[in-house]
Amino acid sequence: MLGFVFFIIGINLYQEQKTERSLEALRDLSSPRALVIRDGERQRIAGREVVEGDLIVVEEGDRVPADAILLWSTHLTIDESLLTGESVPVRKRTIQLEEDPEKLSATLRPGGDDLPTVYSGTLAVQGQGIAQVQATGIGTEMGKIGKALQTVEPEDTVLQKETRRIVGKLTMIALAICAAVVVIYRRSLPFQPDSTTGACRTDPGNGRRGFASSGSCPRTQNGNITQNSRS
User: Fold this and answer.
1) Which residues fall in a compositionally biased region of kind Polar residues (predicted)?
2) What sign results for the dihedral spanned by CA atoms 114, 117, 123, 124?
């Protein structure tokens, strides 16, 4: 019996490991890939593994993995609509010798032709180029936008405000109806004698709780309230 249990546990562990390997392979396929030059060789790595200072190769159809400065390019055009909203691709140029890469990265922004900068998340639609990474992750223009969006507090829509107002009114009406039903129900209770003292528990005149002698306690006959009298 124990051997059978261990056999089942072993099968479950094997299946879990196999599933984890399959999921890891799918994550690698779905994550953006980047072509980088390291130690003089081109390597295809995951976009999240790109670090500052890497040389990345951008070709037609590639997603730019990081913010970078173009060191070389030929007929490179980039779709920056993800950052600017402009659907028309922009031309890119190579940085000039007299230009400071760090200063350009700090001052230039997405949008406009003939800029030597490429930005994370944008798409190369034509040409190719080699660029040096200046920023990754939250330090990119895309990361700054995401960080800014986290600080924005969403306001309630008109529909949400009106719905909340209507719900509040309906709640008050429902509470008022419940209170009225309770009052009407208490006033309509029949007058019953107390089981221990024989006294009435409700005053038939005004509906207030009180006690009367058993001889004057009203009772119901055929749905009508009558008054007992002593013989």
Assistant:
1) 213-231
2) positive
In terms of Cα–Cα distance, which of 227, 204, 203, 226 is closest to 215? Answer: 227
Pair 113, 53: CB distance under 8 Å: no
How distant, in Å, are the alpha carbons of 49, 149, 178 from that of 66? 10, 20, 63
- DSSP conformation letters of 78-95: EE-HHHH---S-EEB-PP
Structure tokens at 137: 């992750």
Residue whose token pair is 């008022």: 176
Please report, for residues 90, 103, 132, 170, 176, the alpha-carbon distance to residue 114 in angstroms, rounded to integers and kept in the order given: 8, 17, 17, 62, 71
DSSP category for residue 154: P
Chain centroid, CA 173 distance in Å? 34
Q: pLDDT for 39-89, tens place per residue?
A: 889 999 888 889 999 999 999 999 999 999 999 999 999 999 988 888 899
Angle CA 123–125–126, to nearest 5? 135
